[in-house]
Amino acid sequence: MSWSPSPTTAALELREVGHDYPSRDGTVPALDGITLSLDQGQHLAVVGPSGSGKSTLLRLIAGFQQPTRGTLTVHGTPVTGPGPDRGVVFQQPTLFPWLSVLANVEFGLRMAGVPRKERRERALHQLALVGLADTARMRPYELSGGMQQRVAIARALAPDPGIVLMDEPFGALDALTRERMQEELRLLWRHTRKTLVFITHDVEEAVFLGTRIIVLSARPGRIILEESSDLPYEENPRAAPGFARLRERITEAVRHAAHQAH
């Protein structure tokens, strides 16, 4: 099933969203007072110190958890659980090792009841889009870590979601592979124009990938800085004069948040 956005509402809207976790000593606040609105096609990068609630924020948007307070909507519809309008890429590829690459990408479509011929065509198209058309019959363990993560991205894109959520998807990769994956993701998004929410602890990665960037405070996570990037997304933004200045502003905010945590 493909998904079509409404042209009249924000792709994603959070109003005073907070989330608490239960513990033996009472509730632990993870997020508090998160308010933001994201238009279709924007790329939101979320950074902050460890424990600031970045992954919790992504899980709330994905529908894996519900906010303790506040409202969260996707194209005007309250989020009550996971749905085909949101695709998720996790820190690890989480592929099924006994299935072929193609079958992994088809998996969500098969669960949704998409006919075999259609799901195969869509899966092959996504594999071609991430540059892995020649790996369809291989098993995940025959691929490198970066290639496995590209398969995971293809799987998330196959149902044609409006929003793709990524939780530090390149964190386990070596530096060279990570940089190459960042560049490939930018190229991919030029073709798909999906809305992206990207969680990272790497400031440079956030500035490279985000058209908007927010910094979360120490727990409970609150937005302490929000920046819109006017860097040239069609080119390499690292060469733009404003890249270093934006990176420094974000870095200083993350440092301040980390200092407040101690």
Automatic annotation (TrEMBL):
What CDD domains does UniProt report for this protein, alphabetically?
ABC_NrtD_SsuB_transporters
Give yes or no: UniProt keyword ATP-binding.
Answer: yes
* Keywords linked to the UniProt accession: ATP-binding, Nucleotide-binding, Transport
Q: Which SMART domains match?
A: AAA
Against SUPFAM superfamilies, the record matches this protein to: P-loop containing nucleoside triphosphate hydrolases (SSF52540)
- Domain of life of the organism in this record? Bacteria
Q: Which residues belong to any copy of the ABC transporter domain?
A: 12-243
Q: Reply yes or no: does the keyword Transport apply.
A: yes
Q: Name one GO molecular function term.
A: ATP binding
**UniProt xrefs under PANTHER family:** ALIPHATIC SULFONATES IMPORT ATP-BINDING PROTEIN SSUB (PTHR42788:SF13), TAURINE IMPORT ATP-BINDING PROTEIN-RELATED (PTHR42788)
- Per its record, how is this protein called by name? ABC-type nitrate/sulfonate/bicarbonate transport system ATPase component
Q: Which organism is it from?
A: Thermobifida fusca TM51
